[in-house]
Design brief:
Low-confidence stretches: none
Number of domains: 1
CATH superfamily: Carbon-nitrogen hydrolase
Largest sheet: 6 strands, mixed
CATH topology: Nitrilase/N-carbamoyl-D-aminoacid amidohydrolase
Structural class: alpha+beta
Helix content: 10-25%
Shape: globular
Strand order of the largest sheet: 5-4-3-2-1-17
Strand content: 25-35%
Distance between the termini: 48 Å
Number of strands: 17
Number of helices: 5
Order of helices and strands: EHEHEEEEEEEHEEHEEEEEEH
Amino acid sequence: MSKVKIGIVQTSCTADIQLNMQNTTRAIKQAISNGAQIICLPEMYRTLYFCQTQDYEQFKTAETIPGPSTELFSKIAKENNVVIIAPLFEKRTDGLYHNTIAVIDADGSITDIYRKMHIPHDPGFEEKFYFTPGDLGFKAIKTKYATIGTLICWDQWYPEAARLTALKGAQILFYPTAIGWDAKEPDAIKPSQLDAWQTIQRSHSIANGCFVCAVNRIGTEGDLQFWGSSFLSNTMGEIVANTGHEQEETLVVEIDLSEIDDTRTHWPFFRDRRIDFYGDLTKRFID
């Protein structure tokens, strides 16, 4: 297939998991009704973004894979012949938790999982308290409609992650996200933060000649105002579809995967890489 319709689900979240799941399911069905074939949800859509503080009670919200969310979405995927990218707070075993994506194919099967590799630890983003770093590496996951790469939020700032995922064959890089402005920060710096977030991900499209889809949440939770602005960029880094800052939105946008070959032929970055001189990339710092 050359043309694929991507569903972008931008939602807000509450303290009520069941309400969040109902809202998310409704948005998925809206995307399906508009023709979406691959649907991506935002990071941690089941709960509030609890990583603003360290709270042992939050571990009770984690779930196994398979588990309640994957069972629900597998049923929806199979009934509607769609792929669903479902981020989850995964309980791998007692005391071991990950920030994970389950990729559910159009036949309802869990095709693969990805565990967030880069775990931030900053004021308001204390994720190292909750999440063990991923141990599955970067992946290109074959689905019915496209070969996709799944990365999560903080992963989006690392060109190495995008490059390795694209080199493995990913045609679309999906970034489920929970990012926003700190309410205590001056308004003057907020536009530059949002611009940096979009720019780094658009650059992944350009450098790798692939599509990028970033899916964020909206709403104010504690000290964080999530900025929405979910978007899809084409193989030249142009934003071809995007949402606003403040509203729940479900977008469906059609892309043509044949653009990847055309772009990479005319901008042959993969061809001209000097892989014989990149060994220092494995070092923390070059003295």
